[in-house]
Design a protein that fits this description.
The protein is an alpha+beta fold. Helices cover 29% and strands 28% of the residues. The chain is built from four helices and eight strands, in the order H-H-E-E-E-E-H-E-E-E-E-H. It starts with a helix and ends with a helix.
Length: 184
């Protein structure tokens, strides 16, 4: 079953708070209910993969200013049928930043977020069940923006809120601070 890889990791994931715990449970339910959960054509929603790309010393995070949404976010995107969400997150991070040497810190889920995508000219409102992984890259590598982003840049962790202070982003900042504070 192509959903097993994700379901196993969702079962192992340790949410930070009750909000993420609920989103993780909702995602698990969604993945079990829909065999086509990785397909963008599933109109109620679909699984997406995101990359929380950090510097080796964990002092910076790589964010992109999304052209269409006009906000700063982590790289990520649709699975388009691929059940290996970690590979999707890595592919999206490479495509959206131009950085070729991005490696996973582990294959464990770093964060889970469920958010509503509003109705737009191309599609009805639907949910993204976003699975996020902690990845690492060298901040000295050349960044190449693409058509989806206005700017891609490294942001000091203590300045992320100046770019995007949403709970979704700030939860990942808090998690990274916890990881940095405790030995790996």
């Amino acid at each position: 079953m192509k959903r097993e890889w994700l379901l196993t990791r969702l079962d192992q994931h340790q949410p930070l708070d009750t909000n993420e715990l609920e989103m993780c449970a909702n995602t698990r339910e969604f993945v079990r209910a829909y065999s086509d959960c990785f397909e963008r054509t599933l109109v109620v929603g679909h699984v997406t993969g995101s990359a929380w790309v950090v510097s080796p010393d964990r002092s910076q995070v790589l964010l992109m200013h999304h052209r269409k949404l006009d906000r700063w976010f982590q790289p990520g995107g649709h699975c388009d049928g691929d059940p290996n969400v970690l590979e999707v997150a890595m592919k999206e991070a490479t495509e959206e930043t131009g950085i070729r040497d991005i490696t996973p810190v582990s294959d464990s889920i770093f964060d889970v977020d469920v958010h509503l995508i509003p109705t737009n000219p191309k599609e009805a409102a639907h949910y993204h069940y976003d699975i996020r992984f902690l990845l690492e890259a060298n901040p000295n590598e050349v960044i190449e923006s693409n058509a989806e982003s206005k700017v891609v840049k490294w942001i000091p962790l203590d300045q992320v809120a100046e770019y995007n202070n949403s709970e979704s982003i700030m939860r990942m900042v808090r998690k990274l601070q916890q990881v940095t504070a405790s030995p790996m």
